[in-house]
Design goal:
The chain is an all-alpha fold and 164 residues long. It has one domain. The protein is built from 5 helices and no strands. Helix 1 runs antiparallel to helix 5 and helix 2 runs antiparallel to helix 4. The longest helix has 35 residues. The radius of gyration is 18 Å and the shape is elongated. It binds protoporphyrin IX containing FE. The site of protoporphyrin IX containing FE has 24 residues, from helix 1, helix 2, helix 4 and helix 5.
């Protein structure tokens, strides 16, 4: 399959990551509801670990596909039936740079939040001396992944969906 499955001239893995980025948000919201409102700490831990694995697999496969198979994002954008103007390409590149700030920091923040929580939270998980730092890291990680998702979808829209 050379194009994506969402109906645009992208790649299978690009569309796969778009779906993953959309799915991550409701799962994350549910996980936060589980910990903050329901105090279901083990469920929160399991959902966060699941999200971490989804993120790792989706982003890893995506990077391999984009860089090694497709030859970079510009080559994928060039598959458009109606090419983007130089001005539009510059705009898309700026959106991509903003997206990359969030997309690159997210895996590091998530890895730190997860590893520290697994090492320092009691088992089964619950409030502890690590709670204060974990809450700060947790909220920053949450904002980072949501921004990764939002900016990624904006890039996808302007690069592949919007008419010239
Ligand atoms: C990147 C992964 C994670 C994120 C983004 C995250 C996010 C959060 C956030 C934002 C809160 C605070 C909710 C509030 O304001 O009350 C929280 C609480 C909590 N998280 Fe996580 N979490 C993650 C992974 C984990 C893991 C792996 C564990 C268990 C080993 C865990 C255990 C807890 C516990 C026990 C609390 C409650 C702390 C308390 O109320 O004292 N979290 N998490």
């Amino acid at each position: 399959m050379t194009d994506g499955f969402l109906g645009y001239r992208t790649s299978f893995m690009l569309d796969f990551v778009v779906v993953a980025l959309i799915l991550i948000v409701p799962i994350l919201l549910y996980s936060l509801y589980a910990v903050k409102v329901q105090h279901k700490y083990a469920l929160h831990r399991n959902l966060q670990l699941l999200l971490g694995i989804i993120l790792l697999v989706a982003v890893g496969l995506f990077e391999v596909d984009l860089q090694l198979v497709q030859g970079g994002w510009a080559k994928v954008v060039a598959k458009r039936a109606i090419p983007l103007t130089t001005e539009q390409l510059n705009f898309v590149q700026t959106v991509l740079r903003i997206h990359l700030v969030f997309a690159i920091s997210t895996p590091f923040l998530w890895a730190t939040t997860i590893v520290l929580a697994l090492c320092r939270m009691p088992s089964p998980p619950g409030p502890s001396s690590h709670s204060k730092l974990h809450k700060s890291l947790g909220w920053i990680s949450t904002i980072d992944i949501v921004m990764t998702s939002v900016t990624g979808l904006i890039f996808y829209y302007f690069a592949f969906v919007a008419k010239s």
